[in-house]
Design a protein that fits this description.
Layout lengths: L2 H25 L29 E2 L14 H13 L1 H22 L4 E13 L12 E16 L4 H67 L5 H35 L8 H4 L13 E2 L5 H4 L1 H21 L5 E12 L12 E10 L7 H67 L5 H35 L13
Parallel strand pairs: 1-4
Antiparallel strand pairs: 2-3, 3-5, 5-6
Helix pairs in contact: 2-4, 3-4, 4-5, 4-8, 4-10, 5-10, 8-9, 9-10
Length: about 500
Amino acid sequence: MGNFQKYCVLKLIPFSVLVLIILQGCFGIGPKLGPDYAEPRLDMQDVWHQEITKGLADGKADLQTWWMVFNDPVLNRLIERADQGNLQLKEAFARIKEARANRGIKAGERFPDLNATGDARRIRSPHTLLPPTTQKSRTDDFFKFGGEGSWEIDFWGRIDRSIESADASLEASMEDYRDVLVMLYSDVSTNYVEARALQDRIKYVRGNIETQRKSLQLTKDRFDAGLAPDLDVQQAELNLARTESTLPTLEMLLVQTINRLGVLLGEHPSALHDELVKPASIPNPSESITVGLPVELLRQRPDIRQAERELAAQTARIGVAKADLYPTFSLFGTFEIGANDFSDVLSYSKSRMHSFGPSFRWNIFDGGRVRNQIRAEDARTEQALVRYEQTVLDALEDVENAMISYIQEEVRRNALERSVKAARKSTDLVRTLYISGLTDFQNVQEMERFQFEQEDQFAESEGKVIQNLISVYRSLGGGWNPGVKIHE
């Protein structure tokens, strides 16, 4: 090999090293320490338990805007207002912005860190510190300007793993936002149905109060005519007072429920009273209810998706910790110009100084700190995996409980509806017998009280049926579209 070829090789080697370093710094070319993440595979049942799906249709569930099945314009407006004003939703969105910023911080480590420096001083030296021949103090000016920079070369993938973890954490924050969205729509709908059910219960209470007032007047008339004892009057008074005592509690619950709705919308508690004070019927679905397959929960439930992303983020942190076992390579450089006269700063070539070169740092002994940090990250990853699996099991339990509650409450509601019809007819019959003198007032009292209890339970059950249906939609993760991204 000739001298010229040797010269070229010697020049090519540092140039090639520099190119490789730049490629590694910009594009992360090189090994990545730590395990590569793979989504866990879970054994999911093929179908729901047969007993809990009676009355629910098979097929693909339309979950994105599930509240539309009720065809209730008021509920639709409340959902829209909650989407715009709910404070917990805004807080969740702020967490997304924080996660995006944290991701930007990690991504910024891929690039050089450059700093401008400057210094301007006037230094006075007393003659006592100067050479003996100097009899006076001296004042000197000094000006220095320049810059410095450093660039960590991500040779072991520490920065890439940090970005990978930040990406997964960002996605987890998005799933957290969607989970808040699911819960918000469910809470608004549940409280709205509760308000309508309370209005129905109040309607039944007032109807029974009116009926029992008529019975009280009837007993008074019969007592005045000598046809009934004073006991009948007192029993009628007792029956009426007991029924009237339930009304304040229901009125209180109604106000509290409307207050809760106002807060869910991000408004003052009393903001919805004028809008909801007028009674309306409990919303009912206008179409058959369809549910998907258990495996679809992995795609639809935000809490499951969030737990999976948190597992991915934690897995990447193992590689970040392992990188501390190996040396850290960096490029550094400085450039400075200094002079005693400001006008000479840019022209005085002898005052210019620069330095450039690679460096490395390797922690040879740390008392086991790094290896124990790796063990800690491994243990946290194991915990994240268990949390993910537990979240899936909790979701399956949540769905099955919601389904069985909806189906069985519907059975109960139907039975109560028959009971109410029978109680009303029985009350009319026993009142006719009492007027005819064929039975005593105690039977009237018992039937009126029984009718009131059955009507109240029926109205409450009607509300619970719809609330349990809302729980089914919530447990399935309804209220958002997996195909829609969350943007600023």
